[in-house]
Amino acid sequence: MGFKQLFLSPGNSTLPVIKVLQAAQFFKYRYVTFVALFFTMKIVPLFKVKDMKRAIAHYTGVLDFELKYPHESDGVVDLVKNGIELQLTIYEGDYLFGSVANILADEVDELFKKYLSRGLDTSGRENSPVHKGPTDQSWGRREFYVTDADGNTLRFCTPIV
What we know:
Elements: E1 2-8, E2 15-23, E3 32-36, E4 46-48, H1 52-62, E5 66-67, E6 76-81, E7 84-89, E8 100-104, H2 108-117, H3 129-132, E9 135-136, E10 141-147, E11 153-159
Parallel strand pairs: 4-7, 8-11
Antiparallel strand pairs: 1-2, 2-3, 5-6, 6-7, 9-10, 10-11
């Protein structure tokens, strides 16, 4: 009995979508293949923001996200980028600031340079090397962080090879 995992590559990420279980039975030359489909789940982080226009400008103008529904309300906005979804809201309670989401990316160094060229502000983060540029972490990932004006942080990560 063996396992084989098939992958699809939407955008920059590789997501397993089907697992195939193969079982061989050699009773008079019979070979039986079982196919099992497994459903995947998707997490969509919800970030609380104070100023929706400023937040949309940051996420679309600097970080390449796009509005999923360009004509949606000012209170809740869905953003997308290469299969990643992120939701911004002004409706959650005043206590809900400072969320974190990890984004697995292929080339964090190139992304960081691109975001800097678009105006990414790294000032005020002198004591946080991962806000100043990609850093090799002891847990085997190269990461940089982007924190918006409302305290929400995106952690861009890639495995160290």
